[in-house]
Amino acid sequence: MIDLYYTATPNGLKLRLFFEETGLAHRIVPVRLSAGDQFKPEFLALSPNNKIPAILDHAPLDGGAPIPVFESGAILLYLAEKTGLLYPAQPRLRLEVGQWLFWQMAGLGPMSGQAGHFRVHAEEPLPYAIERYTREVQRLHGVLDRRLQDRRFLVGDQYSIADVACYPWIVPHAGLGQDLATTPNLQRWFDEIAARPATLRAYEGVEPAYAQALSSQARQVLFGGAAEPAR
């Protein structure tokens, strides 16, 4: 059994997608970010950066004590390597999957998060920041569009953790100021993944990120450090 410490953010939804696609046994442990659950000592012990998602694997391959893993990309890679699921067997294809996974972690996720923050969650509009991050997300969408020009998925015809990592950061495209009609290959990829039964289950009842502004209290907890990080 694997405990998934989860909130329905794009990073959290990566793991929901993985578990829904694979059927791997797990238990969801909700983390209420706006209530400051991420600052509790018991969560800090699993995720030193106070961020979701995190997992606790009660049955690691070495048979030892339960293993905590934090950072969504690291969790996906850990689970894929442990199970072989959503992960090609060929070393060259695994290298491609790893490159696109790290591309998402280093670029698509952070830049989309900044665009969403300044477009929707900032207390005051900052035109330079809005333009800077919106343009960068547009560029990154173009990178994906070119990659998908002659491929069904990011690594050929095999759906992988690379696709799982990227998809949740494309879901809020409207709130990020993007029009998928301008990137037809990305639109085709997005529509196919959106229609997968596992995706429909993972996103049932989930509102896209950056669809509405946060309350002042939630903003203070999430961005103002209102809760004292546990020591």
Layout: helices, strands, pairs:
Elements: E1 2-6, H1 10-22, E2 26-30, H2 41-44, E3 54-57, E4 67-70, H3 72-83, H4 91-121, H5 127-147, H6 161-170, H7 184-194, H8 197-202, H9 216-223
Parallel strand pairs: 1-2
Antiparallel strand pairs: 1-3, 3-4
Helix pairs in contact: 1-6, 4-5, 4-6, 5-7
Describe the structure.
The chain is an alpha+beta fold. Helices cover 50% and strands 8% of the residues. Helix 1 (10-22) links the parallel strand 1 (2-6) and strand 2. Helix 1 (10-22) packs across helix 6 (161-170) and helix 4 (91-121) runs antiparallel to helix 5 (127-147). The protein is globular. Strands 2-1-3-4 form a four-stranded mixed sheet, with helices on one face. It has helices at residues 10-22, 41-44, 72-83, 91-121, 127-147, 161-170, 184-194, 197-202, 216-223, and strands at 2-6, 26-30, 54-57, 67-70. It is built from nine helices and four strands; from the N terminus they run E-H-E-H-E-E-H-H-H-H-H-H-H.
List keywords for this structure.
single chain, 231 residues, alpha+beta, four-stranded mixed sheet, 9 helices, 50% helix, disordered C terminus
Whole-number radius of gyration?
18 Å
**Average pLDDT, to the nearest integer?**
94
Class by helix and strand content?
alpha+beta
Could you estimate the helical fraction of the residues in percent? 40-55%
H-E order: EHEHEEHHHHHHH
Number of strands: 4
The count of helical stretches stands at 9
Major sheet summary line: 4 strands, mixed
How far apart the termini lie comes to 28 Å
Low-confidence stretches: 225-231
Strand order of the largest sheet: 2-1-3-4
- Overall geometry: globular
Which percent band covers the strand fraction? 5-15%
